[in-house]
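Chapter summary example.
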Amino acid sequence: MYHYESETYIEVSRKFMEACAWLDSLGIEYSRTRVGSYGKIFGALAKCQQAGTLETFYNEHSFESWVNAAHEVAEIIRIYEGLGEQSVPSLNVRLKNAIKGQELYVLDSENRSGRDFSFELSTAAKFVSAGLTVDFGHDADLKVKIDDFTLFVECKRLKSTKKIQKRIKEGLKQLHKRYVESEQPSNARGLLALSIGKTINATLGLLEGSNYKDLGNKAASHNRAFGEKYKSYWQEKSDRRTLGVAIFLDTPGIITPEKQLVTCHEVTINNSSPANTPENMLLNKIFYHVFQKRT
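The structure predicted for these 295 residues follows.
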């Protein structure tokens, strides 16, 4: 199921400024970070749209810079809309880390970066939006209470095709460690969340589609192809407590007939546990109640 929403630059800028005000209320200085840069770009974009002078904006800002800003702003708004009512010190630490790093996505290195933390937080936002409680103070990227289980989520932003297998194995190993060290290992379950955008679209080019549905289908096809190629790593000899993998693709796109910029956010799941098992039913529940919501 795809969700489509069309908003003006003015409306997106308003939402983004609300997110910035939230950071400010938490005592997080963002103005000198990449987030502050995005705010300036979108503020100028909204002002020009309001005045009917978008050509002025396009003449003063490179196409790459404002597409980059749109891509990043979409994730920050998702984080705010999901976590805006949360206020705990452990979340603040992660937020401070999330806004660090290079302004431009294409300059992000393979080392640990702010975008790794923002991926964790945007994933957490989905669980919180579904009415679940996330423990931000645990060693796991996410610790979530769901039904009678403790769900551990390890989030990996894949940045190099050469290291995909290694990163998947690292994540699965981390999940196993979480189970063993949990208070009730038999009630521990796990999910590996993989962001594949950097391996699919390292230059942050535009995914093209003739309409929203076509664009959604193309994004979904990238996720399915990734799952088919690498599923053996999480399906063979997997700890039964590992439910499966959530595959995320975030990329800018364009509806070609209207030349309309779109920020695509696609989530697909691929199971580790056999069909019709309690673990598989839990995975499906998470998919429909957490990942199918518009966050």
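To summarize the output: The CA atoms of residues 176 and 239 lie 7 Å apart.
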